[in-house]
Design a protein that fits this description.
By secondary structure, the chain is of the alpha+beta class. The chain has three helices and four strands. It has a four-stranded mixed beta sheet, sandwiched between helices. Strand 3 (72-77) and strand 4 form a beta hairpin. The longest helix has 14 residues, at 30-43.
Amino acid sequence: MLTTKQRAHLRGLGNALEPVMQIGKEGLSENSYEAINALLEARELVKIKVLKNSDLRAREVCQMVCDKLEAEPVQVIGSNFIIYRTSSKKDFKHIELI
């Protein structure tokens, strides 16, 4: 569980990010979860965009992804959301949480 200060720090880092994945009208599939999991392992902090043609809202998708992948929601604004999970890689420069 992230503290308020940690979440604020991650929000600041996430604002500069571009969305690296898009969720469209197909919604979330098993392949989507695998791709998001790989992104979290590689980056720890990921911004995802939910397209307008999707039947799901960004907050719903964020909650589903976080529940399934044991990630932490950082921020949901409009159609974008940011999630965080510490990478399990040993030789990785991890994001330092305050």
